[in-house]
């Protein structure tokens, strides 16, 4: 009888995270994880010299089994089984974010999206069904550099936003109002997908790599509408501050420091509410509000290299 093949074992360190992740029999998941990271140094660690891995993933007959130091009960370990590659990728993606947050206890983390207009970031706090990820990808199509579509770290000392270098993830189906140009853009960058998850593999220059920083120049509260023209209207800084505070999930930063930092961020930013049905209309208004006249409508040519 032919013995079963020996599964591959890979111990890998991801960028700023201090411990390795061990992949057993799932080189496909390791390769998929590389595709969603920009600016992360991914390095192999010799098994005999490696410190204990923080996350272990093994391919089994039941799927991808993930175990980490954050799971302390067998029931939680069982919950980490993922049947498909994309499910396993989404799970590991989330755990890498949780790990990064834990390793940076003095940093603020805002749940939301951000893109750079000129030299400053415009931040879109996460609001239910507001379409922030779709709008973020559309802004990349227009030539605005994406900073994030989910989590924005903010340094309390400099009050600058940090790029994590993780590509956006859409929730198909795409809106029926999406333009043909937007659909072509997404198709050309289509990454791993399954049903309601689609990674958009933005190229060099379209997304900021891990470690890039920029000041915040705008806070925009999104409201998705079924139809009608887009409207961008000023909001009181207090209203914007409330939304940003509600979307902050820093775990160990004192409350007064959180309030002081975010109040200073909002105070120096222009604050708006954007009601829109079509991302193209929303993009036009955002360009008009946050770009100088000579830069409006200017689009960065896409590069073929990733």
Structure commentary:
Strands 7, 8, 9, 10, 11, 15, 16 and 17 form an eight-stranded mixed sheet that branches. A six-stranded mixed sheet has the order 3-1-2-4-5-6. It has a three-stranded antiparallel sheet with strand order 12-14-13, with helices on both faces. The longest helix is centred in the N-terminal third of the chain and has 19 residues, at 85-103. With 306 residues, it is α+β, with helices and mostly antiparallel strands. The protein is 29% helix and 29% strand. Helix 1 crosses helix 3, helix 4 crosses helix 8 (279-290) and helix 6 (237-246) packs across helix 7 (255-267). The model is unreliable at 301-306 (pLDDT under 50). It has helices spanning 27-35, 74-79, 85-103, 132-141, 180-188, 237-246, 255-267, 279-290, and strands spanning 9-14, 21-24, 42-44, 55-60, 63-68, 81-82, 108-117, 120-125, 145-148, 151-154, 160-162, 169-170, 190-194, 197-200, 213-224, 231-234, 270-276. Strand 4 (55-60) and strand 5 (63-68) form a beta hairpin. It has two domains: 9-103, no CATH class; 108-295, Rossmann fold (3-Layer(aba) Sandwich). It starts with 8 loop residues before the first strand and ends in a 16-residue tail after the last helix. The chain is built from eight helices and 17 strands.
């Amino acid at each position: 009888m032919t013995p079963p093949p020996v599964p591959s074992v890979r111990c890998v360190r991801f960028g700023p995270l201090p411990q390795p992740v061990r992949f057993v029999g799932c080189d496909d998941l390791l390769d998929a994880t590389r595709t969603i990271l920009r600016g992360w140094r991914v390095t192999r660690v010799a098994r005999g010299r490696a410190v204990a891995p923080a996350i272990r993933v093994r391919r089994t007959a039941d799927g991808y089994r993930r175990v980490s130091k954050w799971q302390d009960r067998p029931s939680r370990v069982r919950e980490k089984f993922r049947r498909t590659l994309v499910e396993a990728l989404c799970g590991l993606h989330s755990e890498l974010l949780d790990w990064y947050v834990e390793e940076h206890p003095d940093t603020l983390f805002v749940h939301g999206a951000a893109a750079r207009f000129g030299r400053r970031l415009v931040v879109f706090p996460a609001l239910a069904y507001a379409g922030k990820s779709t709008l973020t990808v559309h802004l990349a199509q227009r030539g605005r550099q994406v900073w994030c579509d989910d989590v924005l770290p903010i340094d309390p000392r400099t009050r600058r936003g940090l790029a994590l270098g993780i590509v956006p993830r859409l929730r198909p189906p795409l809106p029926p109002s999406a333009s043909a140009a937007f659909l072509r853009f997404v198709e050309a960058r289509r990454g791993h997908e399954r049903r309601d998850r689609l990674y958009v593999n933005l190229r060099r220059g379209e997304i900021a790599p891990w470690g890039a920083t920029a000041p915040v120049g705008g806070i925009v509260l999104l409201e998705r509408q079924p139809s009608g023209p887009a409207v961008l209207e000023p909001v009181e800084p207090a209203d914007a501050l409330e939304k940003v505070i509600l979307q902050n999930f820093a775990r160990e930063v004192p409350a007064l420091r959180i309030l002081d930092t975010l109040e200073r961020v909002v105070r120096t930013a222009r604050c708006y509410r954007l009601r829109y049905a079509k991302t193209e209309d929303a993009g036009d208004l955002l360009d008009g509000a946050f770009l100088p006249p000579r830069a409006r409508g200017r689009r960065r040519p896409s590069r073929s290299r990733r």
